[in-house]
Write a structure and sequence with these properties.
With 165 residues, the chain is mostly helical. It contains eight helices and no strands. Helix 4 crosses helix 5, helix 5 packs antiparallel against helix 8 and helix 7 packs across helix 8. It is globular, with a radius of gyration of 16 Å.
Length: 165
């Protein structure tokens, strides 16, 4: 992923989603290590999305108000914060490794692998196929994830998150 692709990726988010997503990424980084042995890996996959929804909901309640009418929007934007945090984690891991940062397809495949590995045995090729299918045919992507042995909630989470990346 070159600098232009990174800026193109970031442009799809609003500033509030970027800021809260960054906070979620930092929180997950610091919470991930102490929680690693104490909670299941499956919970750690959902953690960015749960934190993103909670933090964005709090942000929306304080700054936008009218929580009853805007609750759905707050949760949707919180989910976007979780997607951004997951992608940021993968990009940061790539930046600290020697070599080149991944292109968009590789980034999406690594995110798919990161989200689905606690639920099923997923190879790099399977992750690449999930990422490609999620971009073109969501139902086929979900069916493929289910065929790998992942539960339906994990399939929904992965496909919805990959739409944001």
């Amino acid at each position: 992923m070159d600098l232009l692709e990174l800026f193109g990726y970031l442009r799809q988010f609003n500033a509030d989603v970027l800021v809260i997503g960054g906070i979620v990424a930092v929180c997950c980084f610091f919470l991930g290590k102490p929680l690693k042995g104490r909670v299941s890996d499956k919970f750690l996959v959902f953690l960015p999305f749960l934190l993103g929804a909670a933090l964005y909901f709090a942000y929306g309640a304080v700054f936008a108000g009218n929580v009853a009418e805007n609750a759905g929007i707050f949760v949707k934007n919180g989910f976007s914060c979780g997607s951004f945090a997951t992608a940021a984690k993968v990009v940061a891991a790539q930046l600290f490794k020697k070599g080149e940062a991944p292109d968009r397809a590789a980034l999406r495949a690594e995110c798919a692998e990161e989200m689905l590995s606690p639920y099923c045995a997923i190879t790099k090729a399977d992750a690449e196929r999930v990422a490609a299918l999620a971009e073109t045919d969501e139902e086929q992507a979900k069916a493929f994830i289910l065929s790998l042995g992942a539960p339906e909630t994990a399939a929904e989470l992965a496909v919805n998150a990959l739409k944001e990346i």
